[in-house]
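2024-03-11 09:14:02 DEBUG pipeline.ingest accepted 1 chain
2024-03-11 09:14:02 DEBUG pipeline.ingest length=466
2024-03-11 09:14:03 DEBUG pipeline.predict start
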Amino acid sequence: MIVDNQKNFSRLHMLIDILIVAVSYICAWFIRFILMGATAVRARSFGEYMMTLVFIIPVYVLLYQAFGLYEPMRMQGRRLVLASVIKANTLGLMITTFIWYAMGEDHFARGMVFSFYIINVCLECSIRMLIFYALRNMRRRGLNQKQMILVGYSRATEEYIDRIQQNPQWGYVIRGILDDNIPAGTMYKGVKVIGRIANLMVILPTNRLDEIAITLGLSEYYRLEEIVALCEKSGVHTKFIPDYNKIIPTKPYTEDILGLPVINIRYVPLTNTFNALVKRAMDIVGSVAGIIVASPVMLLMCILIKLTSPGPLIYKQERVGLHNKTFRMYKFRSMELQPEAEEKKAWTVRNDPRVTGIGKFMRRTSIDELPQLFNILKGDMSLVGPRPERPFFVEKFREEIPRYMVKHQVRPGLTGWAQVNGYRGDTSIRKRIDYDLYYIENWTIGLDIKILFLTIFKGFINKNAY
């Protein structure tokens, strides 16, 4: 029910955004050409200006989608939402301006475009804050609340109660828990076990419940068919919250094999051929553009490396990539030459004497990673993905960290979701894997664009690189 409501709300929010973009654009035109009287620069008519909305509106809606602005605000927080509005509008301004000039459309008034940017940011932020406070006030007054009970006491029961209580804006009120193994009267964070599962047939006719959530423990699943039958007799909306979140991730997907449902343990969008081709095309275009743009910097680094320390310019290091296959990853050499056997088993540490003077600068600014653009062009890597690790550490972490090897179901990346969230260099491997798994299971082109955009702003400087 939460998901259905959220989908409808997101569609409504998208329509509101379309209206806001159009109103902001019209207001910007009115301010520039009517209030300011800038007729001298009005080389195009009102109709010609308005025709560009056919292009502008889809661009902005896609950007808002890419920056997560149609996801529940409770999952992001107000500050992050406002920051995402500004980032999406800034990128939208850059994209539309670039396309106009690339097409030779340089007669559009720059003052009007900038006014549109300011007005749109202000209106979008204001509308989102109004919606946030309106929903919060409704919940506080007890409006649109849903009464429910939980059937079965398990880890899933406690985790579900935790989330309901952490998010009162969802509007759920849990009336109690039914379970055959936990004594009546047992409390968990104010929610009481009120009886046995058989009491369902007594409770359902006498209570006005909106939903029932089945939260049985794994050992009780043999009763699932019986309990579902009881719940459906009541006509009350029933949902199932599985107790296997430690085994199966949050986004498994099902297939229908001639009427037999098959649950795939993990949904990886990039196993889809079309998605993989789109991402590969983006990698080729992005790597070629990156090589062209970064070539002056790379040339300068080659000269500095050659002048400051003896040895090769490019350092080739064995890493583990897609489908656990190893490849040679390119980096500018930032350390003194050392035996390969020693290098394979050790990370660099703070004030590592092996790092050269120019190497420290390259590592801090991530310039030493630029040769990986050639790895991307070859197909060993992607612009965005989990960072690849050396075989020695892969063998070590696969035994120590659950689900570590899942990261090798996609190509490793030059940058990634973990990196833009601060998990680079000497940081928690477990946290890094959590972010990598989120990326793998939730990949979209929009998410890739968002990560690349965030990398420009905060991904290059690496305070944890030694």
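2024-03-11 09:14:41 DEBUG pipeline.report The chain has a mean pLDDT of 83.
2024-03-11 09:14:41 DEBUG pipeline.predict end
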